[in-house]
Amino acid sequence: MFTGLIQKVGKLAGKKPRGEGMVFAITHDAWDSPLIQGESVAVQGVCLTVTAIRAGEFSCDVLHETVNKSNLGKKDTGAPLNLERALRADERLGGHIVSGHVDGLGTVMAFDQKGSDWVLEVACDETLLRGIVPKGSIAIDGISLTIAELRPKSFTVHLIPHTLANTSLQALKRGHTVNLETDIIGKYVQRYLERIQPATGVTMEKLHAAFGG
Question: Is residue 212 part of a domain?
Answer without folding.
Answer: no
